UniProtKB/TrEMBL annotation:
It holds the Pfam family AAA_16. It comes from uncultured Chloroflexia bacterium. Residues 234-327 form the Orc1-like AAA ATPase domain. InterPro entries: AAA_16 (IPR041664), P-loop_NTPase (IPR027417). This is Orc1-like AAA ATPase domain-containing protein.
Amino acid sequence: MLLRTLGGLKLQGSDFYQTKPLLLLAYLATEGAKERRHLWQIFWPQASDPANSLRAALRSLKRDVPGALEADGTLLAPRLQTDVQDLLRALEHGAPEQVLSLYRGTFLEGVHLTDLGLELEEWIYATREFLAKRVRACYLEFAESHPAKGHRESAVGYAERAYLLAGAPALEPEEMERLYALLIGTGSAYATRLRLEAEDLGLTLTPFSRRLGVVPSDPDVKFAAHRLPAAVSTFVGREAELHAISELLHQDDCRLVTITGLGGVGKTRLALEAARQEADRKAIFVPLDGVASPKQIPVQIAKVLDIEIRDSEDLVLRLAQEVGDAALLLLLDNFEHLLPGAHFIPELIAQCTNLKIVATSREPLDLVDEWVIPLEGLVVAGDSVGGDILNQDAARLFLQRGKRARLDFS
C-alpha cells in the first residue's frame, strides 16, 4: 500500500478520499510514531472534543484502510509506505533519474483545510521546502557533472528543472552563482531571468564557474583596446545615421544593430566610424567576406579574438566563456552570404551580458532582437545651387574621392 504525497494526497489503489485521515497517515508515515494527545492537539486544535475527533478519524481508517496504522497503547505508528520515503532513498543514492520520476509535484500539493492548526500548517510548508531543496540540490549536482562529460542537453534540462522547481525555498547566493554558471554555460534562456532576479536582490552574478571545468582568461586584459582597421580617409556625412547607431548602442534593450544597404553604399565605413566613437566598450572588427560557411562564423570570431578552439568543442559556449562580461562591441562585416548562420547571435549575447554587435549586410539578419539601420546613397538636394552644393554630404564625398585620384581636382 503506497500513500502518494508528492503532487497531491492519494492512497494508491484505494477509493478512500477523506483528506483529514489521509493527512494523518501522511504525518505519521513521514514523522514516525506519535502519541495520541500530540495528534489531536495539532490536527484538531479548535475542536470541543479533539480526542473524539481523532477516534472518528481512526475508525474511518480502520474500516477503509485496514492495516495502515498500528496502535500500541497511546502510541500510533504507521504501517504503510509513502513516495516520500522512496524519494529520500533515491536522493541518498544520488539517483537523479529516479528522483525526477518520483518528484511529481510539491509535498501535499493542493491540500487545503480550514481547521488546521498553526503547527500542522508549518509542518506542511517546512516539509515541502525541505524536500524541494533536497531535490534541487540533486538536480544541480547532476547538471554540474554533465557539461564535462559532453551531455549538454541533460545538463541544461536538469539546470532548468533546478531553477524552476516548485516549492523550494528562495535560492541562496551560492546556489544562484552555480545555477547561473550552468544556465548561461548551456545557453538557457532562463539565464537572463535569473540574473535580473539577482540584481533585484543587489547581487551581481559572474557568468562562469570553475565547476564547469573551464577557467576563462581575464576579458578586461584580453580585450583592452580597439581592434579596428586604420582609417584611410576622412569620414564624410552620415551624421544622422551615426547618431542613431550611437543612441541604439546606449540603450539597454538593444544588443544587435544591423546596417543594411546595397553594395558600396558605405555600410562598413559607417560601422567603423560608429565603433571608433564608442568610448564605453572596446570594438573589434570581424571581416566575414572570406568565410564560406555559416557554421564557420564562430570560428572566424574566435580567430580574430585569439581564442583557441578545441576539436568537438561547443563554439558558442567557448566564445561566451572567453568574452565573459567584458564590455565589447563586435563589428561583423559582410554578413549577407551567411544569413542562415545568424541564429548563434541571440545565444551568444544572452550569455555575454555586456556584449553588443553591429553587423553590416545587404539584408537584415531576420532576428527578433535586431535593430535595423537602412542605408541609402548620399544625395544632393534638387534645389541646391552655387556654393551651397559644396556643403552637402554627397558633394563633399565626391570631391574627396576626386582629390585622391587627382591632386588638382576641384
